[in-house]
């Protein structure tokens, strides 16, 4: 054989062949891992995965309460508010009758057109500080009550007060007169009489003297809560 000639120029690179099958991973010893400068990729993935979350632990005991702080300084009083609107007046209470004297119905016993009624409560002080009201009752099938002075038909009824001397109680003198002023011998239109002694302490406000004098018998007894 003759001598070897010079190497010819390199030919063009051929096409890449198909990939080969994966081989079984070869375990490396710790020394080999150290020489390789790291850990195996499979082991690294296992270290990155987090384990399952554990149960929550029990709540710890409550701490002791802190010391109470000092009271703050009182604030200044605010400005007083405006007065509210006055409320409506209440309903007037019922009038009392503790001091009103009611004689009750007395038979009308006129003699020569006169009838005298006495009462120990009719002192000078009572007469000067009270209202004396006299009413007559006439029954003619229906009852008719009237206040003295009054006139029914030709019979006129009136009264006046008189006493028999200093310190003596007053007497109520009732008169029954004809239209011409003469006394009536036989009175037909008055069967009974009643009087009220109303002290000045009960004559106030709506119980004024003028109002009481205008009241009928029914209004007076209802007003003071008296017996009929």
Account of the protein in words:
With 228 residues, the protein is α+β, with helices and mostly antiparallel strands. The protein contains 5 helices and 9 strands, in the order ααβββαββββββαα. A hairpin with a 1-residue loop joins β4 and β5. The chain has a domain of 124 residues. The longest helix has 8 residues.
Give the tally of β-strands.
9
**Number of helices in the DSSP assignment:** 5
Order of helices and strands: HHEEEHEEEEEEHH
Q: What distance lies between the first and last C-alpha atoms, to the nearest angstrom?
A: 177 Å
List low-confidence stretches: 23-27, 33-43
Q: What descriptive keywords fit this protein?
A:
9 strands, 228 residues, four-stranded antiparallel sheet, five-stranded antiparallel sheet
What secondary-structure arrangement, pairings included, does this model have?
Layout: H1 30-36, H2 41-48, E1 101-102, E2 106-107, E3 114-118, H3 124-128, E4 130-140, E5 142-147, E6 150-152, E7 155-163, E8 170-177, E9 192-199, H4 209-213, H5 217-224
Antiparallel strand pairs: 1-9, 2-9, 3-8, 4-5, 4-9, 6-7, 7-8
């Amino acid at each position: 054989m003759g001598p070897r000639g010079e190497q010819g120029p390199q030919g063009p690179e051929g096409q890449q062949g198909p990939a080969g099958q994966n081989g079984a991973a070869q375990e490396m010893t710790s020394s080999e891992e150290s020489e390789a400068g790291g850990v195996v990729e499979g082991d690294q993935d296992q270290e990155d995965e987090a384990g399952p979350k554990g149960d929550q632990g029990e709540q710890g005991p409550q701490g002791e309460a802190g010391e109470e702080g000092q009271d703050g300084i009182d604030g200044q009083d605010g400005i007083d508010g405006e007065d509210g609107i006055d409320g409506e007046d209440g309903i007037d209470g019922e009038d009392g009758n503790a001091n009103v004297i009611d004689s009750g119905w007395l038979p009308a016993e006129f003699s020569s057109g006169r009838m005298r009624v006495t009462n120990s409560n009719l002192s000078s002080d009572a007469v000067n500080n009270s209202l004396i009201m006299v009413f007559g009752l006439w029954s003619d099938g229906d009852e008719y009550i009237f206040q003295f002075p009054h006139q029914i038909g030709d019979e006129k009824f009136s009264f006046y007060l008189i006493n028999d001397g200093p310190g003596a109680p007053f007497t109520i003198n009732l008169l029954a007169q004809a239209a011409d002023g003469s006394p009536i011998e036989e009175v037909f239109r008055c069967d009974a009489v009643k009087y009220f002694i109303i002290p000045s302490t009960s004559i106030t406000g709506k119980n004024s003297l003028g109002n009481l004098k205008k009241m009928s018998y029914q209004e007076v007894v209802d007003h003071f809560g008296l017996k009929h």
